[in-house]
Design goal:
heterotrimer, A mainly alpha, B mainly alpha, C mainly alpha, A: Helix Hairpins, 5 helices, C: 2 domains, two-stranded antiparallel ribbon, 2 strands
């Protein structure tokens, strides 16, 4: 039981990661793929943040009476990762807009059909 | 004083110029700035190489925060080799870019292309020079995001789809890398690569570390276009603007190889880990599969850029094969091939860029290249020489790396691997000769208004072709540098 | 020694000059002839050193740590270089007649690639180690490709493709691993008297290496790699004459002899190559049978070449001292005889537009010089005096007798008969049978006839003045 309850953060991480990847692969709509990607990235944030909270640790501000502090470094790293994620999402959305403009659709199978019609 | 800060300048120079280009919005300024930046980076890389050769590894603490708390930039024999490779490619490609970009990218967007080029350069150089795991991720994403934009600026609308697909796969790869780094951080408490290496030796719970190894391998494998994670590469190379293809083909995957080498040999304790996971066997198997499958697909491919893109996947297989074989000769071969293939493929794509310029919107199918030798004699001849280097004929750069790979395989007693290397070379000969035959022996058809490629492009292309032959005869830098790097990697194992 | 370098540079520079004199055909032809004469003079000057026992060497540079580009002249290489450079001059004269007589296109490309091919052949001749040999060997393949594909039509393209495919297949799949394994096992790839593998290679390794070398050197046309030779007959006859009777094929057998003597050495070679006489013998007989049945003249000559090349391989593989002399002599003797035969075939095509043997009846009376030369060439192939082929065959037979190699003797005897079988009728019917067609034509253009007579003369003179080739051949140990 403690394997589940004590590590619930990691189980959520795994769920998000797999769900994100599933959406990325299985969904044909380009926007939905981006959402899957975002889910995947979010799971990683949780992976970093969860272990940062040490058992019995307080906020990482030096104060008398506290000897164990939670680790602030992963938070910093994740801030960076979130920024990267935002940039990626913005770029992805821009690409989707342009694809919509040139192809007239954001469904992957329709786009592939249009492409092979071009080739053939 | 300048000399001490060379490591940080290597990255800051292109990083600072990129927003300037965006602000200036002028195409001419953008081109000049990019060229100056490329040459500047090359000068810095060579200066660093000289320093490293004289006094060994350079360690630079950013903001004077000492490692392992601050971010450290570390320049050693391996990173300096890759730094010179990347900046050399940039210096060769940037000057010729002007005509190419003018022909393929809309005028009002051209300056954006140059800005992305500088950012990509900054990212690649940053990956190579940093000694911090997370900093590597940041630069990885900088280079990747700018690469996605570079590809998306291609003329054909398929470039958008290619960029989107690459973005999806690339981001998944980077995310996997971050997961791996997270696991390593959890086990060692540090992000500094050198420190991590020391602390990993003391870790007794191995499972997270092995998981980290797996995640990092798959993540970087996606960026590396390791078979079967190479699906994004053919479309990306084929539909990107020619200049982007020339630059990326010669650098992006090579830098990812550098990351693999760095992690495998200098972070993870090889003796301990590779006993638990069959990494060498997996690498050899995947490389062999990649070499054969990609070469065969290239043989039947009708679009000439896609043909050479698949050829790149096969050549990356050569490089990862050397890593899998794991001895001095094969590692020397792999690292030398980073440079040799960079120069060869760069030359081919630059030449194809000239052809694309003259062909306009006509398709670049192999059949359409009929009579190229009549219309563009120097370009066709350059393609022959670069093609010979791709096949690995003695007297060219490609032969040198092939020799060392074969040596490495022989020393391991793996005869069948030698057979595969040779078979892949033969298939390469077949698909290169398809193009040469069509260019020289088939009569030209259709209208033709252009002439030879413009002088700027031609000089850059021929410079790279000459390098293909030069590195086939004078290997003091290519093999010498690679050997130093290989020794460094193998020494770290002990 | 820089004379070695000059000898390499002369044809290379000539190729560039020829390409540059694209618009002035007479200048272009003059460059070819002058360079050929200069090259021959250079090589002749070098022969004095070699005959005195001084073998000039020159290291051009180090490609990879421990692997140099090295030139070294020794008797075998000198013989090959003399043959190649001398015959370049003669075939230059011949080509002028052929190219102009048939009004061929792409003549500049032809002469330029020719010069480049000679450069590669000289490089092979002068190679001081395996890597240098391999470099020039591959260069020869690629530089002769445009010559084979000269006509540019579908047949030429397909023939050239077979040519390139087989030669690359053999050299990449077999020769390259052979060289790398030699480097790994022997720690050196320099050609040394007595071989470099003694004591370093186990019997199994030596046997495997022997196999790799024999089939890797595809230019020696051992069966089944021989197919490139008939495929290359799509080329214009001067190409077939110089390259596929002299430069390319001789580079092949030269390399095999060189590897046998200077990499394996006589004792190890005899063990490791004990199976080679069987393959060579089979090639000799099988190729002769195909030649017997071929009606196309060039095809007949091509298979005759395949057969004659294996004479050299057979004699070398026996590794008796006199048979090696015979093998080396045959490199020269066959070159002179075969080039005469191909020149004659080209003359027949140019003057009478005939390509099949069955069409040649009675032609001898209208083209006496051509067919007389053909007859002399045929004598040399069969191995009868007073032709050069007799000298080499004599040494081969004596060598085989010494070594008590009955298989070789049997093969030589049988193939002599077969050779007579497919050459004698041609000459007989040309002179004595009634003519088939009544078209009036005379001899071939005078430049071609001059060349024909020159090479036929060489064939005869090697019988009477065998000192220089014999002297060189005896020094190959």
């Amino acid at each position: 039981m403690s394997a589940f309850a004590g590590h619930y953060a990691y189980w959520i991480t795994i769920f998000l990661m797999v769900a994100g990847m599933y959406i990325l692969i299985a969904r044909g709509n380009l926007l939905k793929k981006l959402i899957g990607l975002a889910l995947l990235q979010t799971s990683v944030y949780l992976l970093y943040i969860a272990p940062a909270k040490l058992i019995g640790g307080s906020a990482p501000i030096i104060a008398g009476g506290f000897s164990t502090y939670s680790n602030p470094l992963p938070h910093v790293l994740i801030l960076t990762a979130i920024v990267v994620g935002v940039a990626t999402l913005a770029l992805g959305l821009a690409l989707v807009v342009r694809i919509r403009e040139t192809y007239g659709s954001i469904e992957e199978d329709e786009i592939l059909a249009l492409d092979s019609a071009d080739d053939g | 004083m300048m000399a001490e800060h060379l490591p940080i300048l290597q990255v800051v120079l292109p990083l600072a110029v990129a927003p300037l280009i965006v602000l200036a919005r002028d195409r001419g300024f953008a081109w000049v700035a990019t060229t100056v930046v490329s040459y500047g980076c090359l000068a810095i890389a060579i200066a660093l190489a000289v320093q490293v050769a004289a006094s060994g590894t350079i360690s630079y603490a950013i903001g004077s925060w000492p490692a392992p708390w601050g971010i450290e930039y570390r320049v050693d024999a391996l990173s300096v080799f890759v730094l010179v490779l990347v900046s050399l490619t940039a210096s060769l490609v940037a000057p010729y870019a002007q005509r190419s970009i003018a022909a393929e990218v809309a005028d009002d967007r051209a300056y954006l292309m140059y800005a992305m080029y500088c950012l990509c350069l900054a990212g690649l150089l940053g990956i190579t020079i940093t000694g911090d795991a997370f900093n590597l991720f940041v630069f990885l994403e900088i280079s990747s995001l700018s690469t996605y934009v570079l590809i998306a600026l291609g003329r054909n609308r398929k470039a958008l789809v290619a960029a989107y697909q690459y973005m999806l796969m690339g981001t998944v790869g980077a995310t996997f890398y971050v997961i791996g780094v997270g696991l390593l951080y959890l086990m060692t408490g540090t992000l500094n690569l050198a420190d991590m290496a020391a602390r990993l030796r003391e870790v007794d719970e191995l499972r997270p570390v092995l998981a980290a190894l797996a995640f990092i391998t798959v993540g970087i494998g996606l960026k590396l276009a390791l078979f079967p994670l190479h699906q994004w590469l053919p479309n990306a190379y084929a539909y990107a603007p020619s200049m982007a293809t020339a630059f990326i083909a010669a650098t992006a995957t090579k830098v990812s190889v550098y990351v693999v080498l760095r992690y495998y040999f200098m972070v993870f304790d090889p003796a301990q880990l590779f006993a638990h996971l069959p990494t060498r066997e997996v690498f050899i198997a995947l490389s062999v599969a990649g070499m054969l499958v990609a070469s065969l697909v290239a043989l039947f491919e009708s679009d000439v850029k896609r043909l050479f893109a698949y050829s790149s996947v096969a050549q990356i297989g050569y490089i990862t094969l050397g890593i899998g074989l794991d001895n001095q000769a094969s590692l020397t071969g792999s690292i030398t091939h980073l440079l040799n293939h960079g120069v060869t493929k760069g030359a081919i794509f630059v030449l194809l860029g000239g052809v694309a310029l003259r062909y306009g919107t006509q398709s670049m199918s192999v059949a359409n290249l009929a009579g190229l030798a009549r219309r563009m004699p120097l370009t066709a001849f350059g393609l022959v020489i670069a093609g010979l280097s791709l096949i690995g004929i003695p007297g060219t750069a490609g032969f040198v790396s092939k020799w060392y790979l074969i040596m490495g395989a022989l020393e391991q007693g793996l005869w069948w691997v030698v057979g595969v290397i040779l078979a892949a070379s033969l298939i390469a000969a077949a698909y290169v000769w398809r193009v040469v035959e069509v260019a020289y022996l088939c009569p030209a058809r259709g209208e033709w208004r252009g002439g030879e490629a413009p002088i700027g492009m031609l000089t850059a292309a021929l410079a790279m072709v000459i390098l293909c032959v030069y590195f086939g005869f004078d290997t003091t830098f290519s093999v010498g540098g690679a050997r130093e790097a290989a020794d460094l990697l193998l020494r770290a194992q002990k | 020694m820089t004379a070695l370098l000059y000898a390499l540079l002369v044809p290379a520079v000539a190729a560039l000059l020829i390409a540059a004199s694209h618009r002035r055909p007479n200048l272009r032809e003059a460059v070819t002839l002058a360079s050929a004469a200069l090259l021959f003079a250079l090589v002749l000057a070098l022969s004095r050193d070699v005959l005195d026992g001084r073998y000039p060497a020159l290291v051009l540079g180090e490609i990879m740590p421990g692997l140099e580009l090295k030139l070294e002249l020794e008797p075998l290489g000198l013989l090959f270089a003399l043959v190649a450079s001398g015959l370049w001059l003669v075939s230059g004269i011949y080509s002028i007649g052929y190219m102009r007589g048939n009004d061929e296109a792409h003549q500049t490309r032809f002469y330029a690639c020719f010069a480049a091919a000679i450069c590669a052949a000289i490089g092979v001749a002068f190679a001081g180690n395996l890597l240098t040999l391999y470099l020039f060997y591959e260069a020869l393949t690629f530089v002769t490709y445009p010559l084979v594909a000269h006509h540019g039509d579908d047949k030429a393209r397909s023939g050239a493709r077979t040519y390139l495919a087989l030669l690359l297949l053999s050299s990449m799949l077999f020769l390259l691993p052979a060289i790398t394994i030699t480097w790994l096992v022997a720690d050196t790839i320099d050609f040394t008297v007595g071989g470099i593998l003694n004591g370093k290679a186990s019997t199994g390794t030596a046997l495997a290496l022997a196999f790799l070398y024999a089939f890797g050197i595809g230019k020696a046309a051992l069966m089944p790699i021989h197919r490139w030779l008939p495929a290359a007959m799509v080329a214009p006859t001067p190409v077939s004459a110089l390259l596929h009777a002299v430069a390319v094929v001789k580079a092949g057998v030269f390399s095999i002899v060189k590897v046998l003597v200077y990499v394996f050495g006589v004792e190890l070679g005899a063990q490791a190559f004990a199976w080679l006489p069987w393959v060579a013998g089979f090639t000799i007989i099988a190729a002769s049978i195909v030649a017997l049945r071929a009606d196309n003249l060039k095809r007949r000559l091509a298979y005759s070449t395949v057969s004659q090349l294996s004479y050299v391989v057979l004699a070398a593989a026996i590794l008796a001292p006199l048979s090696i002399v015979g093998a080396v002599l045959h490199i020269a003797a066959h070159a002179f005889g075969k080039i005469t035969l191909f020149f004659a075939a080209g003359a027949i095509y140019t003057a009478a537009h005939k390509t099949e043997v069955s069409q040649l009846d009675g032609l001898g009376r209208r083209m006496p010089w051509t067919f007389a030369a053909f007859g002399i060439g045929a004598l040399s192939m069969i191995g009868l005096p007073p032709a050069a082929g007799f000298v080499s065959k004599w040494f081969m037979v004596i060598g085989a007798l010494e070594a008590q190699h009955w298989l070789a003797l049997g093969v030589i005897a049988a193939s002599t008969l077969l050779n007579a079988g497919y050459f004698v009728p041609v000459v007989y019917r040309a002179f004595l049978a009634p003519a088939r067609d009544t078209a009036m034509h005379g001899e071939a253009p005078w430049t071609m006839v001059v060349a024909l007579v020159a090479t036929a003369g060489l064939t005869l003179s090697m019988f009477f003045l065998a000192d220089l080739p014999l002297g060189l051949a005896e020094r190959v140990r």
